[in-house]
Fold this sequence. Notes:
- The protein has 456 residues and is an all-alpha fold.
- The chain has a single domain (50-446), classed as Growth Hormone, Chain: A (Up-down Bundle).
- The chain is 75% helix and 0% strand.
- It is built from 16 helices and no strands.
- Helix 9 runs parallel beside helix 14 and helix 15 crosses helix 16 (425-446).
- The termini are far apart.
- Mean pLDDT is 79; it is low at 1-41.
Amino acid sequence: MTAASRPEPRPARRPEPPTETSGLTPADTAIAPAAIPHTSENAHAAHPSGHAMRALIASVLGYAMDGFDLLMLGFMLPAISADLHLSGGEAGSLVTWTLVGAVVGGIVFGLLSDRFGRVRVLTWTILVFAVFTGLCALSRGYADLLVYRTIAGIGLGGEFGIGMALVAEAWPAQLRARASSYVGLGWQVGVLAAALLTPWLLPVIGWRGMFAIGLLPAVVSFAVRRGVEEPELFVAHRARIAQAQAQMPAHERGAWLRALGLLVADARTARASVGVAVLCSVQNFGYYGLMIWLPAYLSKSFGYSLTKSGLWTAATVAGMALGIWLFGVAADRFGRRPAFLFYQVGAVVMVFVYAHLSTPFALLIGGAAMGVFVNGMIGGYGALISELYPTAARATAQNVLFNIGRAVGGFGPLAVGAMAARYSFTAALGMLAAIYVLDILATLFLIPERRGAALE
């Protein structure tokens, strides 16, 4: 073949730009950006980037402060009740209304995060939480303390979901569950610190001094804002939305408010949302019902001192931390559903067994084993929820669904307290064991497997 007859080489086809809408209208783009796939470079990386590590540290710190605050409150309830002359119902309601505030904060800050960015809104949640926790130190009675705790709960409610979305979008897909488990470990670090420090500090600085410590997270919020960037996935998503909104009539530009609708966009998504809400409700009901009353259970049933109760509670928390880490590893290797089912069966068995232990050594080891299963599942929610919903609704889904669970979980301490008063702590723990059967059913029939799926 001569040079003259040789066909001309075809020019290489240029890749489509990431803002291509593939025939969708601007309204479709704003409402359902999941139809425009985008995967960050880090999603296929073998190791997390520096940005991913900074995002993880910020999310872990935020969640650690939440854990410290709530367990600290459990230890302080007797002192607060004695000083402010609170009834048992009023004391328990401080926990319940903190969690009610968390539901409100979860919805509001989740929507704001999907609109304005993960990092910016995460700093807002930390500031709200820190300032109103500090104000609790100035409370003069039940009414103002209840208001401060509720508003602090609003800040608390936003931190979990935003941190999980931030980490899921920044970390490689094959490490996503492990990264989510690290955020869950942040809570346990805070709880462990509360279990070890509160019995030592409370007699020295009192409950007001303990609340004043809550102002320290305000410093963390400024460090987060300065040192962490928005995930590439979210930045690209916002660019697509901005381009689409530029072509919209002004009255249609509030499409970001429709993120809640994406949680029930179709039958499959609606089933998954119901399933996740059940999982989160059982998780929080069991966790708060157990951890708020565990010191009192050990004290009343076995005569443990405050310090000894703290040490035995710390053993349970250490088991929870181990369980969270193992869950992340298992969920990345075997899948989300198998890991959840294994832990749910373990929770049923171990809570029931713990209720029948009586010797100090058995309570110590049994508490650690129970902790592995009861709270280990927290290591999987961030990855599970992130893979079920698009970028336009990811933080909203994390916060709304998990904080629905917190709202239900807020009744855990009340239910356990009522069962213990009417029957016994053993009966109350048996009730907690039974609720994990709901978890098993929800996982089997409502939760799809999405291990390692590319985020949309």
